[in-house]
Amino acid sequence: MNVPAPRLTEKIALTLAASLLSAAVHLAPLAAAQTSPASGSSQNAPVSSHDRWLHVRVTNPGEKEETVRVNVPLELAEKVLPTINKNRLHGGKVRFDDVDCHGVDLKALVGAVRSSKDGEFVTVQSKDSDVRVAKQNGYLFVHVFEKNRPKHSQVEVKVPMKVVDALFSGGKDELDIVAALHALSFQGDTELVSVKDEENSVRVWIDSKNVTE
Amino acid sequence: MILAKLALGFCGTVAVAGVYTFHEGVMRVDEDHYDGRHVHVWVPAAIVPVALHFVPSRHFEHALEHASPWLPTLRELTKELKRYPEADFVEVQDGRQHVHIRTHQGKLLIDVTEPGETVHVACPLVMIEDIARELEAKAPAA
């Protein structure tokens, strides 16, 4: 047991080195995980080839402290939605019935809109509101302007026809939400919904940024 | 000399075990009430899924009954969230109440601030995914 001091020091050094080496091997993935965000911290850095984000923003112009911001990657929504089976949502599809549509055959209606040329399909002008539904350059536009309020309210919806087609591509009486999201992911930066009234402002849009401005 | 070797071996093992235990990060739950109550829980993420193995199954039955339909959703959600290690997902500001859900450095962060109470939760996404898998394995077949 009488080991010379230099040999003992050598053994201590070896054990320490082995421990450090093991630590380094185990820590490497952690270090990589912690450094990767730094490179990804630039807000516009794309995560995948078609990394598209759906943004919802609700603001209250009167009370500036009330805001809602939701940012959802479309790919994430596409993957997660089919796992939810609750009420009418199953496998990424929502079932509806005649009662919901007041007897209107929505699928036939969409088919008619798809096959028709660009133009205005519905124009209603009354003292209370103006409503306009049109198809133009591959987009379906819905514009509602309500006058009969203390302050006017305005709803603008702009949906690519490819998304509408995908939405109704499922079986009868169902909306294929996942297919619509997939179609949406191939669209350019687009504002889909804009609602402005005296209390709130709502915006829904898609782009490649993972934050709202 | 043997004692020295044993001590060194023990220290080395402890060091490696320590590194392994913390390699997935730490789950943190911090709850502060303005009445003076504070709850701070720090748990190494790697041991949580392992600890689930030792919980008697009877304690899971009731929870799994309600949670099992959502476990595939949770697993898929965390799997996808790992692809977005730095992102803001939800932020709600309502007067003095603030809710913020985001990912940062591979962790899911949930911050809730309201008058009289703040809650901060930080969970490594890897841990949530592991837990979802463990619970799915324990859940009764549908």
Structural write-up:
- The complex is a heterodimer of chains A (213) and B (142).
- Chain A has 213 residues and is of the alpha+beta class.
- Helix content of chain A is 34%, strand content 31%.
- Chain A is built from six helices and eleven strands.
- In chain A, strands 2-1-11-10-8-7-6-5 form an eight-stranded antiparallel sheet. A three-stranded antiparallel sheet of chain A has the order 3-4-9.
- In chain A, helix 2 runs antiparallel to helix 6 and helix 5 runs antiparallel to helix 6.
- The longest helix of chain A is centred in the first third of the chain and has 36 residues.
- Chain B has one domain: 2-Layer Sandwich (Double Stranded RNA Binding Domain), CATH 3.30.160.
- Chain B is globular.
- Chains A and B meet through helix 1, strand 2 and helix 2 of A and helix 1, helix 4 and strand 3 of B.
- Strand 2 of chain A pairs antiparallel with strand 3 of chain B, so a sheet runs across the interface.
CATH-defined fold name of chain B: Double Stranded RNA Binding Domain
Largest sheet of chain B: 6 strands, antiparallel
Beta-strand share of residues of chain A: 25-35%
Number-wise, the strands of chain B total 6
Low-pLDDT residue intervals, each spanning 5 or more residues of chain A = 23-49
The greatest inter-chain interface is formed by: A-B, 43 and 40 residues
Concise overview:
The complex is a heterodimer of chains A (213) and B (142). With 213 residues, chain A is α+β, with helices and mostly antiparallel strands.
Features:
heterodimer; A: 213 residues; alpha+beta; 2 domains; 8-stranded antiparallel β-sheet; 3-stranded antiparallel β-sheet; 11 strands; 34% helix; 31% strand; globular; B: 142 residues; Double Stranded RNA Binding Domain; 6-stranded antiparallel β-sheet; 5 helices
